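Sequence in, structure out.
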Amino acid sequence: MASEPVKELSITRTFDAPIELVWKAWTDRKILQRWWGPRGVTNPICEWDARPGGKIYIVMLAGKDLGHAEGTKWPMKGTFKEVIPKSRLAFICGALDDVDRSSDTFIEQVVTVDFVALAGRTKMNLHLVITKSEGPKAPAALQGMTYGWNQQIDKLGEMLLTEK
């Protein structure tokens, strides 16, 4: 089912996991590598330096579950702007045309993730705003953004249940 291209997206979820664990899932590179990206995607390259000014570089790889897209690489890069432990992450990231991290992004987004402790559970509010969208790949990427982000956050929730 086709959807309209996204320019802004908000996702709120409450996880049955303590804030310490949810925070760690967002800030520990090795844990994030396990859930980042939509279903059927792995992250053979995952650089995630969650500190102000820290760099992001992830290459998502489509697996066989994604049929004709198998083997496709979706690289992204970014920079952390704000890191307030167990409270907020803010970063700018964008999709790259190829795995060369020095290449320009064709989509950029500002992502803010706020965390609230709720008696052993955690409420997460994610908000993103598209700040750049250009080139032939941008429309398709924007069209799938809501679906992809929701799958990614579903994977996070599932992983948190196994980590408790």
